[in-house]
Amino acid sequence: MYFLRFFLILKEDKMKPRKILTFGLLIILAVFVLSGVPLRSSLAQQGTCCSADWKLPLPAGNWLITQGDRDSCVSSHCPGGGVVNEYALDIVADTGKDDDTLGVPILSPADGTVLDKFWDPYGGGNVLKVEHGDGGPVSVYFHIQDYLVKKGDTVAQGKPVATIGKSGREWYQPHLHVFVLKNRTQKIGLKINSWDGNTNFATGAVIKSTNGSGSEPTPIAPPAVLSKPMLSQPENNSVLSENSSVALSWKPVSSAFQYKVEIWGGQYDQVMTPCSWQAETTCRIGTMWPGTMYWHVKARGTGGLESEWSDTWTFTVSGSQSASPTPSPVPAFLSAPDLRKPRNGKSFSTSTDIWFEWNYVSGATEYYLEYWGGPYGTLNSGWITDVAYHIGTMWPGTYSWHVKSRNSGQESPWSNTWTFIVQDVAPTPTAAALVVNPPSLSSPADGSTWPQTTEITLKWSASENATKYKVELWGGPYSLMTPCDWQTGRSCYIGTMWPGIMYWHVKALGVDGQESAWSDTWSFTIQEAQPTFQGNIAPRCNRTPDGIGSNNAFDGNLSTFWTDGLGHQFTLELRLPDPMEVSRIIVWDRPQNSPDNNQINALIIRLSNGLEKRFDMNSQGARCIDVTLTPQVISSVTLKAHDSSGNNGLSEVEIWVGPKTGGPTCSNTGRMP
């Protein structure tokens, strides 16, 4: 899914920004591939692709594979990156240029029906699925820029269904991420070993498409010029009351499928983009501060083609300038980047290779670096998409730098300004960077099991000298995710999850920008929803030792006493018919012959998920313990007498699924975990 970028730095003179090229380290990878060294252990394959009549989903010509499947992967297609990625291909134009890839039509590889299109919040962006035949196979495409079909459409081989983009990973190079599933329900892709006459799909391979090159190709007509939108409401020069809920509307444009709105004026000191590339032809603003406002709209069609801006209309919101309606909030500014390196106040020798680095800003697409000092004036990087800029060695002097970000509608303020010194002689050694140890994970417990209704929160302990933490989570039906990226807190809320075994780890960032190693990797299991059962499940449990006591010792009726005959250090295991979400366990100690002669002083309760706790049996009257559980799915409960004083055992065990209903109550309470 992700495109891994490598850089080749060309040697140039001091202070001249060095050109950064997108360049795969294919030679290094080829050494592994050609030497026969396996990159990853094999996964049980679900079959191979593709049928002889299938064609590559790209226009006729040569294309470059920037990342093959798990057998030649370089990043996210490797095992651990998610089963949906392991047999995927990342493909770009053979020139390697973004402009030759972005907006290129994706063609249906065979006749089929559009199965689904949706947004994947975990990096896939716009996703399209096309089913070929009754029940499959299904071709899947990620990072789409524009959809050209809708769900349920019938498509012929070679028909354009979408365009290549970089949605979901805006800072990556545009590319086609494609894989093929055996059917609608399959999670693991088919191994692609033959497609459109090509047999080599390793990273770095050039493949050839013949799609659309037959005797009767389906030509893609050049895009027509889009008409600019015609505004309709509020009418030009109209006056609205101060409590009006403002909604801007316009007429649809033929061949357009998205619209962008800009509005400014009145008491608002910036151009705002309240609706950015939406499908609807109405943009709802809400109440606004009094003043004269200006607005216009532009349209966008397939291939990213944009119209001119519409005519600019005005409207006035009446009321005094001091009136205080409750307006919709002005869209938030983009955040300024956080600087990373060179660190503020650091000293370097003239032989040091200087890189400027800063963080990604949510919503930003480009960054602008300014740096100055020493014998030079102010220099800049220009607007770039990367969060690093290479300078090389620098002449002696004191330098300052800052960075700002922007997107299509906004520009952030400048970041803080940092300084550093370049010296002719070796600088005075600075203190060694503080060591940052990996965090220690704490919850959910390693190997624990949780019902599907559980809202998961990942927790860990603080690392000395750390300021921020980054979390990665994967497993089950999910690809590798970063739900919390360099945050200051020590917990990461996930919420409810689909069933499966999940894995997670955390790393820390120190005060000097150094990163720790990853923590240990822990796992937890989200179980499928269980059949509904409410009540005391203890009477239905199987018991070890078996055949002792009375069945009535498990039905909540204390009038029937039970003697285990195992002596005063007994252990009893109760196995549930099926794993269930248990909320409460109640245990009573009332010997058969002497109801007042209580004999168990303490009891150890152990659950099948590994949780274990000791409880005192002290209470008024009969000894008992009423334990409330954080609801969790378990398959067995083990009871072990601890510090007992006689031969008699328990008289009653209750294991409740859902709330307890009826029966006696015990005043001695506890909790697990």
If you had to describe this structure to a student in words, what would you say it looks like?
- With 673 residues, this protein is mostly beta strands.
- The protein contains one helix and 47 strands.
- Strands 11-7-8-9-13-5-4-15 form an eight-stranded antiparallel β-sheet, with no helix packed on it. Strands 40, 41, 42, 43, 44, 45, 46 and 47 form an eight-stranded mixed β-sheet that branches.
- The two termini are 39 Å apart.
- The N terminus is likely disordered.
Q: How is the secondary structure organized here?
A:
Blueprint: E1 7-9, E2 20-22, H1 26-34, E3 48-49, E4 61-67, E5 89-93, E6 105-107, E7 112-120, E8 125-131, E9 138-142, E10 144-147, E11 154-155, E12 160-164, E13 176-181, E14 191-192, E15 206-209, E16 230-233, E17 238-240, E18 246-251, E19 256-265, E20 268-278, E21 282-286, E22 291-301, E23 313-317, E24 339-341, E25 346-349, E26 354-358, E27 366-373, E28 376-384, E29 388-392, E30 397-406, E31 418-423, E32 441-443, E33 448-451, E34 456-460, E35 466-475, E36 478-487, E37 491-495, E38 500-510, E39 522-527, E40 535-536, E41 542-544, E42 571-589, E43 600-607, E44 612-616, E45 623-644, E46 652-657, E47 669-672
Parallel strand pairs: 3-14, 17-23, 25-31, 33-39, 45-47
Antiparallel strand pairs: 1-2, 4-5, 4-15, 5-13, 6-12, 7-8, 7-11, 8-9, 9-13, 10-12, 16-18, 18-21, 19-20, 19-22, 22-23, 24-26, 26-29, 27-28, 27-30, 30-31, 32-34, 34-37, 35-36, 35-38, 38-39, 40-46, 41-42, 42-45, 42-46, 43-44, 43-45
